[in-house]
Structure formats: C-alpha cells, structure tokens
Amino acid sequence: KNEVEQSPQNLTAQEGEFITINCSYSVGISALHWLQQHPGGGIVSLFMLSSGKKKHGRLIATINIQEKHSSLHITASHPRDSAVYICAVRSQETSGSRLTFGEGTQLTVNP
Amino acid sequence: KAGVTQTPRYLIKTRGQQVTLSCSPISGHRSVSWYQQTPGQGLQFLFEYFSETQRNKGNFPGRFSGRQFSNSRSEMNVSTLELGDSALYLCASSFGMGFQNEQFFGPGTRLTVL
Q1: If you count Cβ atoms within 10 Å of the first and of the last residue's Cβ in chain A, which end, N or C, has fewer?
Q2: Which of B79, B75, B85 is nearest to B6 (CA)?
Q3: Does A96 sit within 8 Å of B50, measured CB to CB?
Q4: What does DSSP say about strands A52-56 and A4-7: parallel, antiparallel, or unpaired?
C-alpha cells in the first residue's frame, strides 16, 4: 500500500463545476503539499499545509491531521485548470526536504 | 527572482553511457532535491543536498550520484545508463531543510535512453 493515496485518478468536469480531489496518507507528517503539473512536465507548488485550511484564488486546500486526510477544491473550474494534481507529504521521520508523492489526479475541464 | 533552472532540457543517450544533469537553484536557496518521474513509478525522491553535503538519499542504486557546489548549484550523474532510466528528472530548491521551507521545482530534464 502506498504511503500517499489520491482519489480519483482521473476526473472530467464541465467548466464552472466545483471539483474536489482527495489525498490520504498513512505516516506522520510535518507538511503536505499540493502540486500542479501541466503537460511538458513543469511542477508548480500550489499549497503547503501543516494544519487547517488555505485559500488562493479559486483554489482551497484543507487538511485534517487526525484523520490523515487532505482535500484540494477548485471552485468555478476552467479549462486552464486541466492538469495533473499531485499530493506530496513530508514525513516526520525525515529531517530534510524529502517528499513522498501520490500518483496524481488527471483533471480535464471541458468548455 | 529567477526560478529554478535545469540544463539540458532534453537529452538522448544510449545504454551504457553516462549523463550529467545540472540544476541552478533560486538565488539564496541552499537546499537542492532531485526527483525522478516515470510513468510506472511516478515521482520518487533521489537525494537532497544542503551546504555541499548529501543529507538524504532515496532508494536508488549507486549508479545515481550527485554533488553540490559552493554556489548551491547541483549536478546529478547517472552512470552505465539503462533503458529504465528514461524519465523526467526534476530538481527543487528551498531556502533551508526544515518542514516550513517550501520547495520550488525546475522545468525538468527529460532523459531518453535508447
């Protein structure tokens, strides 16, 4: 079993829909990251969370440390949101920047 | 501030050769981490360097090595290339190593081994 599990693996939505991507992890963490990867490979860090909730524009990320679960929400989705969204955790067991990644969620938003 | 840069962006090598990839972190960042991304295994941690010292290492064979220079630029080397080494290699930099330090990723080097 992977230490970081994401669901769904693939998600297709219509423009304007509210989207939720889930991430569950099995280890104690010091931080959780949500990353976005567009075709071509470049990765952009969307959020880094250790507790609570963060909001940036139409994106909202929440984390429940007790339940070892995080969600990424996209409100009023747009075709430009189409990308792979990756959840990554920094384990409490490691002192450095090492991240363990989920398999990613491929999001396609149709106009 | 310029972002993380990686060179080259694309590389084609044949089995048995060796390759060196370069990563220049954001100015002022002292930690550089390397990751491998393949369709089968996803993203996996290779190693992390801070102040010219390797601080963490992932589960990769000794053919994968790296180093960091005094200006924080980092290189990774893969010797005796295998077909399975074909991947996108990403580096990420952060100011420090603590959990509160956000990582910023470069565009990656896409390596194809024939």
Answers
A1: N
A2: B75
A3: yes
A4: unpaired
Contact criterion met (CB below 8 Å) for A96 and B51: no
Per-residue CA distances from A67 to A22, A70, B19, B21, B48 (Å): 12, 9, 43, 40, 29
Copy the structure tokens of residue B16: 């048995």
Q: Is A1 exposed, middle or buried (0-12, 13-18, 19+ CB in 10 A)?
A: exposed
Q: Does residue A41 surpass a pLDDT of 80?
A: no
Rounded CA gap, B15 and B87, in Å?
Answer: 14
C-alpha angle B42-B47-B53 in degrees, rounded to nearest 5:
170
Chain A residue with minimal CA distance to B110? A41
From the list A92, A19, A30, A75, the residue with the least C-alpha distance to B102 is: A30
Chain B residue with the nearest C-alpha to that of A103: B42
Cα separation, B9 vs B39, in Å, equals 18
Contacts across the A-B interface (CB distance below 8 Å): 69
**B100: pLDDT strictly greater than 80:** no
B108 chain-A contacts, CB cut-off 8 A:
41-43
- Taking the CA atoms of residue B1, residue B4, residue B9 and residue B13 in that order, the dihedral angle to the nearest 10 degrees is 150
**What per-residue confidence (pLDDT) applies to B1?**
67
Q: Which residues of B touch A98 (CB under 8 A)?
A: 33, 45, 48, 56, 58
Give me the mean pLDDT over the B54-64 stretch. Answer: 93
